């Protein structure tokens, strides 16, 4: 699957691409997956820590150091949702690993989000470790607002540079335009009120696509349903046959399609669909 994805991406465009493979499991498994990914041309690995639920922070740091010796690492705080709660000191130690290049901040928790920022700042790594948001409940604000970090009387202002969000696997053409608006607003003294309001609308869409009402049970199937409606998928099947839409999720998707129709990219997809499927 990784090889097919790499070949497809490379064949689609001549512009340089950064290929990031998912890495999971115990240290031995994650190292093996990193070796495979590197061997077929991937540039970095997005490391899941879900398998480290019972490990100490010292053990998790050692795990990350071992995998980082095989491939440049992107961390994901989505692991917090898997029962791994990590301190600001952990993120300092993680950011000090030479081969760490980015962190996807996705705990859906402002306190935990600030822990990551504080840790990276304490490591002196803000200029080396790129910060991405995966906070689906605050996508646009994360991408717009500045973060002031202080230590020993010195304050540094930084921004989250981009988004790594499963939500943006759908309505993606519209998401790119939203991202450009966020970047433009960073340089202004005030944030436009309509951009602040748009953050809430995007969060509302995410609540339906990611099945927040059912604790994210249908998050993959919900995105598949959007792609199915657009003609990009024939069905909403997932790798796990027991995984599907949550109770009431279809009605919520219907609702946001009606209330936020201007945020969709249906017209863009329709204009290109035959070319993509050829």
Short description:
The chain is an alpha/beta fold and 278 residues long.
Walk me through what this model shows.
- The chain is an alpha/beta fold and about 280 residues long.
- The chain is built from 11 helices and 8 strands.
- It has helices at about 1-10, 25-40, 55-70, 90-95, 110-120, 140-145, 170-185, 195-210, 220-230, 250-260, 265-275, and strands at about 20-25, 45, 75, 100-105, 130-135, 145-150, 155-160, 160-165.
- Strands 1-2-3-4-5-8 form a 6-stranded parallel beta sheet.
- About 35% of the residues are buried.
Helix content: 40-55%
Which structural class matches the secondary elements? alpha/beta
Query: Biggest β-sheet, characterized?
Result: 6 strands, parallel
Oligomer: single chain
SSE order, one letter for each helix or strand = HEHEHEHEHEHEEEHHHHH
Report mean pLDDT, rounded to a whole number: 93
How would you write the strand order of the largest sheet?
A: 1-2-3-4-5-8
Q: Which stretches are low in confidence, meaning pLDDT under 50 for 5 or more residues running?
A: none
| Count of alpha and pi helical runs | 11
